[in-house]
Design goal:
One of its GO terms (molecular function) is sucrose synthase activity. The protein has 7 helices and 5 strands. With 156 residues, the chain is an alpha+beta fold. Helix 2 crosses helix 3. It is globular.
Length: 156
């Protein structure tokens, strides 16, 4: 009201990659390295938060309050770890999902499409299924499909 069309300006919403790129290299090397050192796996939000609290000292967490990285952690719904990569499914607000993966060796951040994120997740499930099957010395046959906790993912 009172604004003219010339005074209005659309502001660009920065991508997750742009928002966390700088803070990642500055603050979170310990967290990402800790996730990767656990090996391949999938983490839920409470596990991501627990790892964050264990990896970053309280004083450093205070500095990270109200930063893009804290927003990312608050919105992280899942982490997929396949060293040296950690992929994150982030839900910054209802109905909006963003997917990124971080290379621990280079501390580089890449945005992922939904299909790329699901492919990364499928790669983890396939790897876990194969390692579980091999560790149980099952002969390869149709009767002996993967019966790991991820059996529904691995049974195709």
């Amino acid at each position: 009201m009172g604004e003219t069309a010339g005074e209005r300006a659309l502001s660009r919403i920065h991508s997750v990659r742009e928002r966390i790129g700088d803070s990642l290299s500055a603050h979170t090397n310990e967290l990402v390295a800790r996730l990767v050192n656990q090996g391949k796996g999938m983490l839920q939000p409470h596990q991501i938060t627990a790892e964050y609290n264990a990896a970053i000292p309280e004083a450093e967490r205070e500095k990270l309050k109200d930063t893009a990285f804290e927003d990312l952690l608050r919105g992280a719904q899942e982490a997929i770890v396949i060293p040296p990569w950690v992929a994150l499914a982030i839900r910054p607000r209802p109905g909006v999902w963003e997917y990124v993966r971080v290379n621990v060796s280079e501390l580089g951040v890449e945005e992922l499409s939904v299909a790329e994120y699901l492919q990364f997740k499928e790669q983890l499930a396939t790897t876990l299924c194969l390692s579980w099957t091999l560790s149980h010395s099952t002969p390869p046959s149709r009767a002996h499909r993967c019966r790991s906790p991820l059996a529904t993912v691995c049974s195709s």
